[in-house]
Amino acid sequence: MAGPLKGYRVLDMSRILAGPWAGQLLADLGADVIKIERPGKGDDTRHWGPPYLKDTQGKDTQDAAYFFCANRGKKSVCVDITQTEGQKIIRQLIEQTDVLIENYKVGGLAKYGLDYTCLSQINPKLVYCSITGFGQTGPYAQRPGYDFLIQGMGGLMSVTGEPDHMTNGNTGGPVKVGVAVTDIFTGLYAANAIQAALLERHQSGKGQYIDLALLDVQAAVLANQASNYLIGGQIPERLGNAHPNIVPYQAFATKDSHIIIAVGNDAQFRRFCEVLQQPLMATDPLYTTNAQRVKNRRLLSETISHCLKQKESAYWLQAFEQNDVPCGPINSIDQVFDNPQIVARNMLTKGYQARSGEITMVANPINFSRSSTTSTTMPEILGESTNSVLTSYLEYSEADLEKLRKTAII
Length: 410
What we know:
Elements: E1 9-13, H1 18-28, E2 32-37, E3 52-54, E4 60-64, E5 74-78, H2 84-94, E6 99-102, H3 116-122, E7 127-132, H4 147-153, H5 181-204, E8 209-213, H6 214-220, H7 223-230, E9 249-253, E10 258-262, H8 266-275, H9 290-295, H10 297-308, H11 313-322, E11 327-329, H12 333-338, H13 340-344, E12 348-353, E13 357-362, H14 386-392, H15 398-406
Parallel strand pairs: 1-2, 1-6, 2-5, 6-7, 7-8
Antiparallel strand pairs: 3-4, 9-10, 10-11, 12-13
């Protein structure tokens, strides 16, 4: 079965994570994605190690593990776009390309004649997606933007981490999320916007420009926390692992580790109290409704904490599951990929690379009834497809390629 985007061609001129994540998703969905990289260097994340990919002899290659999270399914083509011949190659590829993704600074590609204004004259049907930290307009437009900075500026860190004054007397503080979620969210928004533009193109026959900013995306995905402020008039604060609108909905310490309790309604709370052997707590006026439980959060949490510390996590997890109380462990990464549910859902995929042999990676989580994803195609060695793309797509001869190699264009 073919991927639903088979027949579309994407030029991925982005680096690091947000843009490459969008390009990888489009590749997983069947698009022909060509990743343009700097000769001799490539994407920055190829060097963000250790750890590095091992070759068949067990030795480190030049590619960091980080690179492999966002670049499967793409053809790696090395082109120096700072040189006239390199710019010519990009323009030739644009003639037969549906989508271009880039994350250069505002105006960064204009000096090479590779901005939307120039390229849309070559291909009016081109969908051109620019990803920057702060967008193409506004007082911050010229600033560089990185996920960590945006998590702070965009409010995420203000609601992530322990409170300033925790009940145990320690001082909390803001914490970034352990994965670059702003980049990833931006990549997902980009892939959605690109597909929407392609659908619209079927009606208008025209491409268009997409302006995506990490800060905009981070503000958008504040979700209920944003609504708590904009509608409820409350400025959310850090609550550690607790939920601002639901109680009990957080991590608790047990006798040997921690578990998560996620009680979402009053019926679940009554069953939760029965498992704790605290049935009267369910009828206590302080806790009978979620609104009351939120109001009396600290007192209730202290009682729950005392109860859960009497037994091990395994006991509580089994007891809560048997009584339909939402709960779960806090798994380490190795436990995640050993989890029988993850295994059953085929969330690990294996591919092959001549330099390193078989490689295991996380699969695309989308499951179609008819179409397929192509997440088994491993990220390529730097420049692996340069010759094949230039010869098969642009009909360059071996003499042409040799000339380009001698002048370091490719």
